């Protein structure tokens, strides 16, 4: 646990030190769970967004993208169920005065049981070596079987209680499991209450005429209310999708995990409109597609897993998360939800307008079902950033800090250094910058010894460093150093663009999905 905390602290301080993420309004001591993206962070975030947008919109001829407003008519949120059901069960500890999500306290308890299972598996793997059969071990080792049953029964009781809105039983479960406040160790809990997560605001100049509005808690509703407009103007036939990226706002109860859980965040969502009855097929297809998108970034298959929901959101008939191994354990990165006709059906009801698709083949009209993929851009940022940050021991026994970002996402693709600040080397380095900057984000750096400049760019996540020396003036070659292997090669200046392009081109990376 202490190692996880240290690793996470290192991620947060590195993000600040290298201009990725700052606490919002830091000079006023910050605003809880609100963050600003700095010069490198904004680039990394933009690259992740582009990587998603291209995979969704550009590469699928049946998906189009929109950009709907954050403010929406307030009835939207009545129809979507958010006014009545977008709640989290909260509980306060009477001694520490800290507030928690009751379900998260129970889930964290279960995560500890799962950690015990992983520990048993690791021990057995070590003992049996190549002969180890994980599946058989999980099915037959009595201790592990007991742990699994315990975890399952706790989660299923939690899901049932939440579904029935039996908050007294959620409290009873916390007490039976003897869950203590993580801050104080106290088990002195209040009752569990529901807490609506939407932020309210007002539209209008005078207090009397002002209209109550909400800041959208998900981008999806902007897609639903535009469904028919988009379908007609794009002449799409079902199945087709509408994608969107944008800000969403939630008054989160527990917001202590840096950019993992924020009050203002960005989502990348896609609603895929389908024929009723085909949802399970599309559910499996999109689970597979989205996992392939993640794996294409090369951050390690072992770092992802699916988690099927037992407790379904008010709009879903099936749902799964793609979980990622964050520094604090496996947690939700993306959700894939079969939303049925819940949203479109309710918008029809509340607006009195038909939101139906006319099928030209069967000549029937129907309210389509929807398959949704929804990923938090900030959470994806944290996954990429934390997974990339590494401390490496070098051959000479020293250490280097290196941010091994997938080159396609790196904010700066190359740093160009003159070996010395004289003899015409800065001028040639600047000439290379001026040529490359039309294709990539590059930077010029002449300060400090070259070794220190390399380290600085390693920590910054820059995949290439290009050094101009005296030989460069004679034969127009430079050394190009690769961030991950630290290998250096002498290449012609004329080839530099191609070498960088081969590593950072989005097309090459996205082709791995297909
Ligand atoms: N439209 C469906 C929807 O909003 P969700 O599971 O509530 O579903 C989808 O959210 C994704 O948005 C999550 O998987 C997560 O990546 C991201 N997300 C949700 N709440 C967040 C928060 N408070 N801070 C950062 N990301 C968040």
CATH top level label of the largest domain: Alpha Beta
Which distinct ligands sit in these coordinates? glycyl-adenosine-5'-phosphate
Q: Quote the average pLDDT.
A: 95
**Arrangement of strands in the largest sheet:** 3-9-10-16-13-12-11
Strand residue content: 15-25%
Largest sheet: 7 strands, mixed
Q: Can you tell me the CATH architecture of the largest domain?
A: 2-Layer Sandwich
Strand runs, count:
23
User: Roughly how much helix do the residues carry, as a percent range?
Assistant: 40-55%
First CA to last CA: what distance?
38 Å
CA radius of gyration:
26 Å
Could you characterize what this model shows?
The protein has 514 residues and is an alpha+beta fold. The protein has 3 domains: 1-65 and 213-390, Bira Bifunctional Protein, Domain 2 (BirA Bifunctional Protein, domain 2, 2-Layer Sandwich), CATH 3.30.930.10; 87-196, Herpes Virus-1; 412-513, Anticodon-binding domain (Rossmann fold, 3-Layer(aba) Sandwich), CATH 3.40.50. Strand 19 (414-418), helix 14 (425-436) and strand 20 (442-444) form a beta-alpha-beta unit. Helix 5 (102-128) runs antiparallel to helix 7. The structure holds glycyl-adenosine-5'-phosphate. Residues 218, 220, 250, 252, 261-262, 265, 267, 269, 332-335, 372, 374-376, 378-379 line the site of glycyl-adenosine-5'-phosphate.
């Amino acid at each position: 646990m202490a190692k996880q905390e240290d690793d996470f602290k290192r991620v947060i301080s590195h993000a600040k030190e290298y201009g990725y993420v700052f606490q919002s309004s830091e000079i006023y001591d910050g605003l809880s769970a609100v963050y600003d993206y700095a010069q490198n962070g904004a680039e990394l975030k933009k690259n992740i967004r582009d990587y998603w947008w291209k995979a969704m919109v550009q590469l699928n001829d049946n998906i189009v993208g929109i950009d709907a407003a954050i403010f929406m008519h307030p009835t939207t949120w009545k129809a979507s169920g958010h006014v009545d059901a977008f709640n989290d069960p909260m509980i306060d500890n009477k001694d520490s005065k800290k507030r928690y999500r009751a379900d998260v306290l129970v889930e964290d308890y279960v995560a500890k049981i799962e950690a015990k299972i992983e520990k048993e598996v690791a021990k057995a793997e070590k003992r049996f070596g190549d002969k180890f059969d994980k599946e058989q071990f999980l099915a037959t080792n009595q201790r592990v079987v007991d742990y699994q049953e315990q975890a399952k029964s706790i989660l299923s009781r939690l899901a049932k209680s939440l579904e029935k809105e039996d908050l007294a039983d959620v409290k009873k479960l916390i007490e039976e499991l003897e869950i203590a406040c993580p801050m104080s160790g106290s088990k002195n809990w209040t009752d569990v209450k529901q807490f609506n997560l939407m932020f309210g605001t007002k539209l209008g100049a005078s207090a009397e005429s002002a209209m109550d509005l909400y800041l959208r808690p998900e981008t999806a509703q902007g897609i639903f209310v535009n469904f028919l407009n988009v379908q007609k103007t794009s002449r799409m036939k079902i199945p087709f999708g509408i994608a969107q990226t944008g800000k969403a706002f939630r008054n989160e109860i527990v917001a202590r995990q840096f950019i993992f859980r924020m009050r203002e965040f960005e989502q990348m969502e896609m609603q895929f409109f389908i024929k009723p009855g085909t949802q399970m097929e599309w559910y499996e297809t999109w689970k597979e597609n989205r996992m392939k998108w993640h794996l294409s970034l090369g951050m390690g298959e072992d770092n992802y897993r699916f988690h099927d929901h037992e407790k379904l959101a008010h709009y879903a008939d099936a749902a799964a998360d793609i979980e990622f191994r964050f520094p604090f354990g496996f947690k939700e990165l993306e959700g894939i939800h079969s939303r049925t006709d819940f949203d479109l059906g309710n918008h029809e009801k509340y607006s009195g307008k038909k939101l139906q698709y006319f099928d030209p083949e069967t000549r029937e009209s129907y309210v389509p079902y929807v398959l949704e993929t929804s990923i938090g851009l900030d959470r994806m940022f944290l996954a990429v950033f934390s997974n990339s940050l590494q401390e490496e021991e070098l051959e000479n026994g020293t250490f280097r800090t290196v941010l091994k970002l997938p080159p396609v996402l790196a904010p700066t693709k190359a740093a160009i250094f003159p070996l010395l600040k004289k003899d015409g080397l800065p001028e040639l380095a600047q000439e290379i910058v001026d040529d490359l900057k039309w294709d990539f984000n590059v930077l010029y750096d002449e300060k400090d010894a070259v070794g220190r400049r390399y380290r600085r760019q390693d920590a910054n996540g820059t995949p290439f460093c290009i050094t101009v020396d005296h030989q460069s003036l004679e034969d127009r070659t430079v050394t190009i150093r690769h961030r991950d292997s630290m290998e250096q090669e002498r290449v012609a200046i004329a080839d530099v663009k191609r070498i960088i392009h081969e590593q950072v081109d989005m097309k090459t990376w996205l082709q791995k999905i297909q």
